[in-house]
Design goal:
Length: 421
Amino acid sequence: MDKLVIEGGNRLSGVVRVSGAKNSCLPILAATLLSEDESAIRNVPCVRDMNTMVKILKTLGADVEQDGSEIKVRPGRYKRHRAPYELVSTMRASICVLGPLIAKKRRAEVSFPGGCVIGPRPIDLHLKGLEAMGVDIKVEKGYIVADAKKMRGGNIYLGGHFGSSVLATANIMMAATMADGQTVIENAACEPETVDLANFLIKMGAKIRGQTTHRIIIEGVKKLHGAEHSVIPDRIEAGTHMVAAAITKGDITLKDARPDHMAAVIDKLEEAGLDIKLAPGALRVKYARSLKPIDVTTLPYPGFPTDMQAQIMSLMTVTNGISIVTEKIYPERFMHISELSRMGARILLEGSSAIVKGVKSLSGAPVMASDLRASAALLLAGLVAKGRTDVHRIYHLDRGYEKIEKKFSKLGAKIRREKEE
Ligand code: EPZ
């Protein structure tokens, strides 16, 4: 297993290219299963979750070829419809093969994804949506077993306790592309990644409208064909670099960033005092004056993304004054607090809000990454901490950030990957 070793205190500056969005790419790769033809997906980030999805596609019988950032999938008449525990347990997003399998094969067996370190992650909305389309669902030996002789469209309300669901919307939208008649998803997610998936499905011949709103309408078609698609840039990777510019008092230009997908993050960082300039296909983020504390509440898009909550908290730990983070998507997503506290951060957790009192400096320490975004937060803290920080268990980071230490080194960070002893 690897760890990252960071010597803090260097200002980051320069240009970095934003990779393709992991959370777009995963459902899009699953969607290729809706056709027998070849699909070519470009701008695929080279991250571990993508390897897991490729393994799932191969397990189902698809032929997959990867060449750098392009993945070609040739599903052909793949025979299998079982996504096994060994793969699903390593990546919850595997659940997004459920919709394509049921649409194309009329049967799916997908291991129940279970809980997760960021808190409970139920899948009731996925199942409710499929049942409303006439799919028979059972849970057997830890697997969701879904059968559909016929699938019909319907009106499906997909709101849960915490608002819309990104992957439930993806699953129902994919299933509905080949159902009989019209499906209307109410309280649908409209995250840029959901829109990207809808755009890919439309290229495959699906009839979808309203994908940028909370009401998506899908007219079922008999057959979909293969398509080519380049996935959108990763707004969370871009946001993580923006926080790196802020925390190191740096100046970073993000090539290929999509500011139109990042309004909430830009707004909060500007409120903190960062100088942010938008240009077509790029974003320049510059530290210009001492930063002010901010209050952030995570919400479904276009609100502040939960996937940026841990990173912005790292910035708050060294911002003079009191900042507050309220988590409204995953109320228990605070595993990073104990590790940030080991570096000298002062954070009080009150229910689903964290009250952060900025300190003058953090001190480097050995810390343990617990999930993908928590790991990014520890890395950011390490960039500004005094002395050496060892971030252990970075396989979490490798799930979702492409060449992270290389990108940060190029910007001037002292960071290296080492094998754990
Ligand atoms: C996606 O997960 C992302 N994953 C997550 O990113 C992200 O944190 C999340 O959306 C929210 O933006 C991928 O796209 C692969 P949800 P998803 O269903 O779709 C509740 C990362 O770090 N809910 O939108 O699984 C749920 O518990 C990852 O890259 C139900 O109640 O999340 C949560 O409170 C982590 N019932 C809320 O909805 C359900 O059936 C939103 O979750 C489904 C969800």
